[in-house]
Amino acid sequence: MSTPNMSRRGFLMASGSVAASAILAGCGGSSDGSSAAASDTFKIGGIGPVTGAAAIYGSATKFGAQVAVDEVNAAGSIKMELNWQDDEHDAEKSVNAYNTLKDWGMQILVGTTTTTPCIAVTTETNADRIFQLTPSASSVNVIGGEEIGADPGNVRKDNVFQMCFTDPNQGTASAQYISSKQLGKKIAIIYNNADAYSTGIYQKFIDEAAALNLEVVSTQTFTDDQTDFSVQVGDAKSNGADLLFLPIYYTPAALILSEAKKQDYAPKFFGVDGMDGILDLEGFDTALAEGVMLLTPFVATAEDEATQAFDEAYKAAAKSDANPNQFAADAYDCVKAIAQAIETAGLTPDMSAADLCEALIAQFTDASFSYSGLTGESSWSTTGEVTKTPKGMVIENGVYMPLDEA
Amino acid sequence: MGFLTNLINGISLGSVYAIIALGYTMVYGIAKMLNFAHGDVIMVGGYICFIAMNNLGLPPVVAVLLSMVGCTCLGIVVERLAYKPLREAPSLAVLITAIGVSYLLQNTALLVWGADPKAFRSIVDLPSIKLLGGQLTVAPISIVTVLANVAIMVGLTLFTTRTKMGKAMRACSEDKGAAQLMGINVNTTISMVFAIGSGLAAIAGVLLCSTYPTLMPTTGSLPGIKAFTAAVVGGIGSIPGAALGGILLGIIEIFAKAYIGTQLADAIVFGVLIVVLLIRPAGLLGQEIREKV
Q1: What is the mean pLDDT of residues B49-54?
Q2: What CATH class does B2-119+140-289 carry?
Q3: Residue A122 domain flag
Q4: What is the DSSP string of A248-265?
Q5: Residue B135 — φ and ψ, nearest 5°?
Q6: Nearest-angstrom CA–CA distance, A116 and B184
Q7: Contacts (Cβ under 8 Å, ≥6 apart) of B110
Q8: Sequence spans of domains, chain B
Q9: How far is residue A240's CA from residue A253's CA, in Å, rounded to a whole number?
Q10: Is A227 on the interface with B (CB under 8 A)?
Q11: How far is Cα A100 from Cα A80, in angstroms, rounded to an integer?
């Protein structure tokens, strides 16, 4: 970690208002975990990009979490307070945001929204023993564990759990979905090889595609800040791909869709959860996204009562007419799942963050614990991965429609 | 066919670099300073055009004109406030000031327009043109970009050789002191150069965002640096040099991506700069208008 973080820690220690922390204890002097105890409210921290290139995800998770906290408080059996910090999808800013939240007395962390910052923050929460449930950071390196494909040396961080699918599961599920629905014969892939999320999905997709005998005719990469996709799209086109798999975020995806139109190339486009949000991009011509498919566990247009109620509450919280995306639903489910675990285990707000952490780990990994929410029936294994069923979506007339019915 | 497509894309990208490089080269040639804020003026031009088209609903032509007027004013204000007081200062001070202005513009844009990327709608919203029985498709915006590049280059060459103001600029470029003795208002001339350079930046911004339809406060940075590279490769201070350098760099970048690898493309672009500077320190076309001592 860099010097600014160290000096920040020094500042936190001096202010003496922080819950138990191995690092602080190591520095000596600070009294452990006393500040948050005075309250009858669980202090829930949230981190995600509310500004910056990935702002749509962070805002969605922020408002989704807020809706859930409001509901929990309205129900009355436990009280929660949410403090959301912006990290601009930047690892260093994310750790700073985490330190701000610790300063505030956070007991449980919902976040972070995006993968790269999340990997940095999980290292901190694991050392500090703060329970962390991320709505959408999907890399296996977030939860750690070499046996499930994390980088060598990245051991399982037992306090971290995911609400979304891991990247390998998204990649595998995408390949299986494409194969079983016979969506494409010749597949092209464009992925960001400077991004852990994108590469993670790509690797598992390509493995599964080989196992299912899907023909991949073009594989192209790009890096952050790149805006010219003429070569990548041109390669997919000249190789005659009829399906373009895009395991990337929506900002480059929008550029790729526009480039494909420019080259008069119209394959099927298949995205993953990072594609979600493309319809809310300011100035984006939604006609470009017509027919784009993606795998997601949640659709705002679904007609069940819970989804409709969430849709309404979300729009009121976000002061917007835009439908909540799956990130909002994931964050909502994070807070509700934590609330359910707290109630089931009978935890109280006066417990220290470290005690809550151990109790929640025990609860989440308990075989009998499962949570039923907006994104389906979720349960967790000791690896931190979630188990649930993905749904295929397609964009029609500017809204997501279930693919199976369309 | 892939080769031809890549060539067209390369020329299109290169033309954008060339227009940006013209701005760098004009300012350097006459004011002898590297205006590192040029890339950020491009970004401002893009935002003005975006707002004019999306929020005010103006037609593209009006939006582009508005953007040019906005950027020209911005260029004049920046020059007056940041660069003019440093006219006699060492060039290093001016260079650092330019970098400061660059950051100021970027962060102001961050405050005003936010960091969320905007999807820029192309000013030329026409379907692509199919050639050779549909094997080759050319985007209309590419054609517009290339034409704009040629028009600007020819216009600037005529301006600097035929008009009184243009001649004054060349005189300032050769010897400021002597130009002043001949009755040329050096300060006004330099302000004029900034006005023209910033107006060009607006066009470059609109064309850049139309070709690659994304807009955020950092949009101008990387193209700005690459265009500066193009200006140096072509020979900074030379107008045809900027055009040649820009197009060359665009083609190299696209070909490097297509035939060597997308990760290496930027490294190769800047590698070319090093090679050119080793072989011809003044740039490809730089020698002709180098100062004679």
Answers
A1: 92
A2: mainly alpha
A3: yes
A4: S-HHHHHHHHHHHHHTT-
A5: -75, -25
A6: 57
A7: B217
A8: 2-119+140-289
A9: 20
A10: yes
A11: 18
B119 contacts in chain A (CB < 8 Å): 254, 258, 281-285
3-state secondary structure at position A141: helix
Hey, what amino acid is at B48?
Answer: I
Residue B56 burial (10 A CB sphere; 0-12, 13-18, 19+): exposed
Average pLDDT over residues B240-264: 89
Taking phi over 0 as left and psi of -120 to 50 as alpha, with beta for the rest, A304 belongs to beta
At position A48, the amino acid (one-letter code) is G
Q: Nearest CA to A262 among B165, B100, B144, B67?
A: B144
A393 occurs within a structural domain: no
Residue-wise DSSP of B63-112: HHHHHHHHHHHHHHHHIIIIIGGGTTS-HHHHHHHHHHHHHHHHHHHHHH
Do the domain assignments include residue A315?
A: no
Range of the domain at A226: 168-296
Residues of A within 8 A of B222 (CB-CB) are 225
Which one of A191, A225, A228 would you mutate to disrupt binding with B, by most B Cβ within 10 Å of its Cβ?
A228
The distance of A278 to chain B (nearest Cα, Å) reads 10
Question: How many residues in total does chain B contain?
Answer: 293
pTM of the model: 0.75
A132: its two tokens: 């962390």
pLDDT tens readout for residues A320-360: 877 888 889 999 999 999 999 999 999 999 999 999 999 99
Token reading at A101:
């939240």
Q: Which of A231, A228, A221 is CA-nearest to residue A190?
A: A221
Q: Nearest chain A residue to B5 by CA: give it.
A: A234
- Both structure tokens of B155: 């216009």
- pLDDT tens by residue, B190-224: 889 999 999 999 999 999 999 888 898 888 888 99
- A1-35 pLDDT, tens digit per residue, is 333 333 433 343 334 433 333 333 434 333 344 44
The beta-carbon neighbor of B213 closest among A193, A221, A255 is A255
List C-alpha distances in Å: B124 to A39, B43, B219.
60, 19, 20
Mutation target vs B (from A264, A265, A278, A281; most B CBs, 10 A cutoff): A264
